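Notes, p. 3: input format for complexes.
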Amino acid sequence: MVQRLQDKVVVLTGASRGIGADMARTFAQEGARLVLLATRVETVAGLASDLGLGADRALPLALDVRDEAACHAAIDAVVAHWGRVDALVNNAGIYMGKAFQDYSHADFQAVLDVNLFGVIHMSQAALPHMRAQGAGRIINIASSAGKWGSRQQSAYNISKHAVVGLTRCLALETAAQGITVNAICPGFVQTDMVEALKTEVAKAQGVDGDAMLAAALTRVPMGRVLNPSEISGLAVYLASDASSGMTGQSLSVDGGMVLV
Ligand code: NAP
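Output follows (260 residues plus NAP):
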């Protein structure tokens, strides 16, 4: 089988679970050398072991994406280890569901620190190496919440709109340097995060979590929560040579929910 990411060095944040863990599995099947990042090294080392990836195929590292210096140190470690960064997947994210009036300044800051500033820190760390290579791929995992309004999650929604905006701006600044910057906008995907959404938004709305999700799914033409594996295929495409002509795009994988 042709491996579309043969020996490409792919840096993946939020690799420990959910969509990130599935992307790690899929990227590994496509031949990538993986840098697996999450807040605790045990989780990503365990994932590498579960996937049968030895030290020549996976570099597990602890990283809090809120820490700018640590992001630069992580990328420096990757370059020291493998000499290059072919693709950066900014996947780490947190969710917080509340009515707008109930968010504190600290709540907004907490969500933006991970979902937006994490993307900024990692991109600023990786870009000088991509520019020196004359090639690179940045893939931001945004959300359908980055394309439309939604109730009881304004902090999350703002952070994902910002990621879509950053994707466009960064694409323009890097397009002539052999670098592409694109985003994926998942809809409802079965991970810990969708469970948090069920609990927190349902609480803010004063309804039962399952009933809240069932109501939300009436806006999804496919009528179901997606599997993480339904996101990973697009991430492979965006990291591969096949997507060399596209940049600045934010592509929805959401069961038909948001048609822009
Ligand atoms: P998840 O299962 O909750 O996993 C979140 C990941 O982010 C974990 O690997 C976590 O690492 C990592 N993370 C959180 N805070 C971090 C920090 N400060 N520094 C470094 N890593 C951190 O979430 P998911 O559903 O897979 O979501 C992945 C991405 O998809 C997120 O950006 C999310 O916003 C987006 N998304 C998800 C959905 C959905 O329905 N699930 C929909 C649209 C978009 P630890 O294990 O170390 O905490």
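The chain has a mean pLDDT of 97.
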